[in-house]
Amino acid sequence: MRVASSLTVASSLVAGVLSLGACDDTGASLKITGARVHRAGDARVVVEIDLVASEGLGGNIGTYCTRATFAGQAEPVEQCAADLEDGDTKTVRLVSTSDRISEGAAIAVRVRLGNVDVGRSLAAPR
Amino acid sequence: MSRRSVLVGLSCLAAGLLAGDQARADAASSVPDPDVHHAPLPDTRLGYQPAAPRPTLAWAAFQLVPSPEIAVGRQRHVGPAGDVDAGPRAAFGLRWQLTPVLWSFGVHPSQSRWRTFVVDPLARQSGSIELSASFEYIGGHVDRVLARPGLRVYLPVAHKGEYLSVSLGTSVYAYEGLRVAYDVGAYILAGTLGFQMTVAPAHAPLAGIATVRLRYF
Questions:
Q1: What are the sequence ranges of the domains in chain B?
Q2: CB contact under 8 A, B105 and A90
Q3: Burial per residue of B25-53, b for 16 or more beta-carbon CB atoms within 10 angstroms, e otherwise
């Protein structure tokens, strides 16, 4: 009788444990962990953005876009990809098309995944 | 005359019997009384109070002993030129464990089945369900502190778990979102030394953690 009750308790726990798997957060997200800027030899501004991806079930996070808007340049630079899975990190490099971006000019970095948009602000180097 | 003589005879007989009893009583008083100890009746005002272990400094010191562990996982890095580094990574960590509440189904029925924080090894390893809380620091590619609330069941295998017991559990932790992990363990020496394997099937950077569990009370 006692063994039976113990087994019942244990099996209930196992069922509870297995059902907890359904509590996984399936939301995908992308975070900026770092951003750097420097000027290339041809005077264009280079922005490097460090990203870390997460997806609750360990899968691909889907398509995301990284954009840099340089003050003094008409069009932003944008790069889209779908190459990141849960836990992956990536360094994205965006280079301005203009070589006339002045020192201290504002650079707005945005990373968009689905309807979530995160960003950083930088300043153009000398 | 005959009636008188009968009465006199009865009187003499009665006097003789009385004298005999007196002689026997005198003889009996010469034997020493046996040494008898009378135990007092139990004091019914007192009741049985089951032992309730409480946290002490020594207990707290034992809780500070960490359990070493190795975390293995995969964290792919994509470089700016598209180069991919996808090798498996390992990191060393330390884990501390607490048991806020435990319900033992292995202790004697006369004992309380509940334990809070201080858990005697027999109560845990002889069969129990615990609400666990562990804190760990993992270095390397993880480099963070994790807190894991969870639930674990211990089952005895040999000698009511003193020689060998096993466990099955689950826990959740925050790591770029809420994650779920599952663990299995085997323990010897009344649970003071054990090996736990924690797996997170849906979390590549912390896919597996092997822990040498050191724990007492």
A1: 72-77+85-214
A2: no
A3: eeeeeeeeeeeeeeeeeeeeeeeeeeeee
Q: What is the mean pLDDT of residues A13-23?
A: 49
Query: pTM for the whole thing?
Result: 0.68
Give the pLDDT score at B55.
Answer: 87
Are A89 and B169 inside 8 Å of each other by CB?
Answer: no
Q: Are B156 and B106 in contact (CB under 8 A)?
A: yes
pLDDT in tens, B195-213: 999 999 888 888 999 999 9
Three-state secondary structure call for residue A57? coil
Structure tokens given for A118: 């995160």
pLDDT surpassing 70 at residue A51: yes
Kind of pairing between the strands at B88-104 and B84-85? unpaired
Q: What domains are defined for chain A?
A: 27-123 (2.60.40.10)
For residue A122, what are its two tokens? 């930088």
> Taking CB atoms and an 8 Å cutoff, what residues of chain B touch A88?
75-78
Residue A52 · residue A88 · CB < 8 Å = yes
Tokens of B84: 């991919």
Cα(A63)–Cα(A20) distance, integer angstroms: 29
CA torsion, ordered B108, B114, B119, B123, to nearest 10 deg: 30
Residue of chain A minimizing CA distance to B126: A6
